[in-house]
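anyone else get weird line breaks when pasting these?? whatever heres mine. first is seq + tokens for prot A
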Amino acid sequence: MRIAVSGTHGSGKSTLIADYLTLHPTMDHYDDPYTYLDDAADPPGVIEYVEQLRISVNILQELPADTPCIIERTPLDFLAYLKALHELGRTSDHRFSSHLEETIDQALSRLDLLVVLPLEHHDPIALPGGEDLDLRVAMNEALLELVDTCVLATTNRVTEIFGSRDVRLVKLLQATGTRIDTHNS
């Protein structure tokens, strides 16, 4: 199964993936595309988000068909960041070509499951003080809109997962059809 986990920064993607990999240690894992950037600005800006989008598309396009893997972030994440930057007035470029969205849809169609981690008002994840909370919220809203219109939106291959860390893992296991052993403590 090819799984991707999407969500804004500080939504619990890395934690959920790490928990899942603990139970599936032989599964291939693709890190957040940010880790593949050589000279990235901190905090990232338009240039970094465009490059991460490109890396994410390439990862999805090159996935082996028969190798189970879990991927942190999809091209939708980075398109959502770009749209959020525009909504916040931090960039004037708001042109997102239909070709780009078509490329993203083709890449997403290679997934068996897209897991989205939306923010909750009572989200238990604490962020360091330097995090851009406005961008976090705007990206979350843009991502949820994009997910609703992406190629996978009308399939059973998209699931939103929320709740505590343990609940999120159980929901991911259920979504992937993994048998949950409730007799072990």
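and prot B, same format (seq, then tokens)
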Amino acid sequence: MNVYQSFETDRLLLKATSKEDAPFLLQLLNSPKWIQNIGDRNVKTIEAAEKYIQERMKPQLLRLGYSNYTVIRKSDQVKMGTCGLYDREGLEGVDIGFAFLPEYEGQGYAFEASTELMDFAARVLSLPLIQGITLEENLASRKLLEKLNFKLDGTVKLPNDPVELLRYKFHNHFQK
């Protein structure tokens, strides 16, 4: 059994999303903001959520050692959202992504989790560039990316997706 990098902040644990997270992921993927801002992934059962993890998250984790992380509040072990670094076709560098259940939004959890993963990307992975993509109308994601010091750098369309997305970039300035 492979053991992957996990992360800990003052309030959060971030662990690689696994099959045991399927019930939580089913809830998140079907939340109104996920469907509105990310899109309907047609995951309607726990079995479909398990398949989504196995086919969409696990391959990158096996290939690169990082992927999607379930964000857990340390104080009560509640699964609140996800945050990850994604190697997306059509983007240079990795893309940071985050999504939380509505009751956990606006409390700084996404900022805390994203900051931890950006630090990992710089210190451990030595990635020179991280990108963030979002719909123009997704003001919450845009504000978070700007708070994380990403700079708007135009638009992008991902392969096989007609939607034009705003593209933000963050250049890591690190020393080995």
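btw re prot B: The CA atoms of residues 43 and 49 lie 6 Å apart. The chain is about 30% helix and 25% strand.
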